[in-house]
Amino acid sequence: YEGKLTKALAEPVEALLDSASEDTWPAIRKLLQRETKAAVSGLESAISTFELDEATEKELLLRLENHGRSVVESKAREEAARILIRMKDRFSTLFSRDADSMPRVWTGKEDIKAITKTARSASMKLLSTMAAIRLDEDGDNIDTTLSLALVDAARPGTTDRSIQSLDPLASSSWERVPEERTLISPVQCKSLWRQFKAETEYTVTQAIAAQEANKRNNNWLPPPWALAAMAVLGFNEFMTLLRNPFYLAVMFVVFLVGKAIWVQLDIANEFRNGFLPALLSLSTKFVPTIMNILKRLADEGAAPAAPERQRET
User: Fold this and answer.
1) Which of 47, 48, 146, 199 has the fewest CB atoms within 10 Å, counting from its CB?
2) What stretches pass through the bilayer (predicted)?
């Protein structure tokens, strides 16, 4: 019956601790109570045929109940020993994948700061869950303490002197948590968080660099100083265009032709693959595209002439 209880608790408890949320320990308590009750009931029925005295029977049943608690505590200590790996895995999953579990593509529209905060908050929730064993329904303030020390204190707008002068994690024990139920002390939490941030900073930096590179590749306009220089140096030419409408007509025609070529060649998508590959690809498409545009213009120009000839005939 101890073996059956171990099998019924070990893997489900590990899965619950891996998901780590506010409902983790209540779910573990409910699972422990249900499986222990079933095991105790089965053992009680099995030993009833041995005609044991009441004290021996109670001792065996209590031993089985304690075994269930020891299985949960042992599994919790195993998970707490690799908490840093779990935190980095959770951060990587939430940071690098979107709500549909698809890999993120940093196009420049994503709010990296908000995504980083969400991923780190989830990792902190995992650390809070694994900091102590909560098989009894005694309340604690571990989650609040970690949030105050690791999130609120890191905000640049924080001006509360009590937060700046007093470190809630400068202690070897949690408030209202016995030492035997402590898995990760406050000082250890602070050290783990510092190491966690250092090892995940590179991922955030790479995302910012990818976003900036994507913005530069998609920005076809010259810098503001170049626009100002063109406006100043090209003032005379601009006034010449205004005085002679023929130039405006020519410019308009050139614009339409250029727009047609731009759309046909899909230049914006071509340059996303790199400058040299884009030039090679455009060089092979340019002449056929020009011929196609001229052919369309010729067809459209010849189309109105057909009904006129038919009327003359």
Assistant:
1) 48
2) 246-263
